[in-house]
Every structure is written in C-alpha cells, then in structure tokens.
C-alpha cells in the first residue's frame, strides 16, 4: 500500500516580491496531509484539486489508467497552512508511484502543482525560497534549527486564487520590498548560523510588513506579549488567517504561559496547537527502492 505524507505550513517565514517577482520562504511544520492508494474498482470521492493533480500527473507521464486515492488531513482549509499544496503534492507523487513506479522530482511536482494553482514549496526538502505563482525561483536555503511554533487563527478563510488575483497586490508588495529584503537577509543568516532568533526577527519583520495587505487583529499586541515570554519571533500566513509564535526549542519555559496570556488579551484569535518547524519534503511508505 502506497502512502505519501506532505507537511503543511504555518504560513511563510517571508513572502513578498523582489523586483516585482513573487516568492515565499517556506515554513513547513509537522502537521500533515496523507494520500493512500487503495485497491478496488469503486471510485473514491476526492476533492477537485486532488483529482486535478492525479489527472495532470497522468497527462505528464503520458499514461492512462484508473487510480483510487483516499485523503486524510487535519490541516485547516483556507487558513494559509498550505493544505491544498500538501494535498496536491502528495497526490502527484502517489499517482506517479502507483501507475508508473516513478518517483517524481520536486521540480516536476512543482510544475504540475503550479498548473493548478499558486503553490507552497513545502514538498521540497529543507527551507526553500520559492516562487509560488510561476515557479521561477526554486532555491534551497538550508535546514532550520529546532523551533516550536504556537499556531493561532485570526478567523475566517482566504481563497488563494482570489487573493493572488487582487488588482492592488503588486503595488502593495512593491511598497514593502525594502522590509522584505531585510527580512530575507535575517532569515538566510539565521539558517546559515542555526540561529533561531535571527529567523524569528526576519519572520516578524515580514509579518508586520504584510499588515498593509492582509491585516491580522492583535498581531502587534501578540508580538509584544510573546517577547515577555522568551519567544524569538512571529511568523504569519501572508495570504491566510493563521500566525505563529516562535520559540527556540532550547527555551520553551514560557510557552504555555505565553499561549494563555495571548488568549486572555486577544479574544479575537484562537489557539490551535503547537507544532515544530521541520525540514520540508514528502514522506513515502509502502514502496521499495525500485518504486515497487
């Protein structure tokens, strides 16, 4: 039985534009979608985007056939946690393995996924700088130091396609490019040095800059509260509703008290769970080294 798991995200460490070109820096976490290939002739209902991923994978491989998949995911939808990207990437890989015994490369998965919708690069190993709209940037930045993230939801849902189709988006992204360039530099330095605090500073800078595009209530207040409890920074879904309070795993003493303090002071937001920042990439089981 073939199973493929893809991580979700807690938004992005950084997102914006560089000279008008879109990009994000991935923030993969240990909260997953899992696709399983099942036997039998009775069709199994899957979401339209997942079905499109299977169909486009078949087209890419120039093959035809029937394939039943089941999808299990605890990732909230429409929150900026890469739920669709996780579903689509896992389905692409599962379909290729089941039909052709083929391990798709991350770039192949990216090309298929981007033909469906704007896509997060969580299926690439490590932390990536990735053009989520056209795929022009695909750069490995490194692996993260141990960081835990307390995930909060500001409420509502955001449609990825509608958000990226906003007529004012390009101008607003251009206005915040200076802050975004500084944020990139901090995150890159943090990954290179294994310094959670630098990564947190860069992520916080990007989250604050994005308030002009997608405002999150209480964000500034949360930043002030979290500093009192030893957090290293805040990451946010730049096209979603969640944000995360980041703690170095070596210094989690204030974590529970911080979550409680935010809940008491910011009634507009809801605590979801605490996750860990991880290296991205798909987890495949039930297949041998030859793809069988």
Q: Examine the coordinates and then state which fold CATH places here, giving the name of the CATH topology of the largest domain.
A: Ribosomal Protein S5, domain 2
Q: Roughly how many Å apart are the termini? A: 10 Å
The CATH class of the largest domain is identified as Alpha Beta
Question: How big a fraction of the residues is strand?
Answer: 25-35%
Oligomer: single chain
For the record, the CATH architecture of the largest domain stands as: 2-Layer Sandwich
Number of strands: 10
On the 0-100 scale, what is the average pLDDT?
Answer: 94
Low-confidence runs of at least 5 consecutive residues: none
**Helical coverage, percent range:** 25-40%
Enzyme class: transferase
InterPro entries: GHMP_kinase_C_dom (IPR013750), GHMP_kinase_N_dom (IPR006204), PduX (IPR012363), Ribosomal_Su5_D2-typ_SF (IPR020568), Ribsml_uS5_D2-typ_fold_subgr (IPR014721)
Keywords: ATP-binding, Kinase, Nucleotide-binding, Transferase
EC number: 2.7.1.177
Structure description:
The protein is α+β, with helices and mostly antiparallel strands and 292 residues long. The chain has two domains: 3-137 and 279-285, 2-Layer Sandwich (Ribosomal Protein S5, domain 2); 143-276, GHMP kinase, C-terminal domain (Alpha-Beta Plaits, 2-Layer Sandwich). Helix content is 36%, strand content 26%. The protein has nine helices and ten strands. The strands form two sheets. Strands 1, 2, 3, 4, 5 and 10 form a six-stranded antiparallel sheet that branches. Strands 7-8-6-9 form a four-stranded antiparallel sheet. Strand 7 (233-236) and strand 8 form a beta hairpin. Helix 2 (83-100) crosses helix 3 (106-114), helix 6 (177-193) packs antiparallel against helix 7 and helix 8 runs antiparallel to helix 9 (255-265). The longest helix is centred in the first third of the chain and has 18 residues, at 83-100. The protein is globular, with a radius of gyration of 19 Å. It holds the Pfam family GHMP_kinases_N.
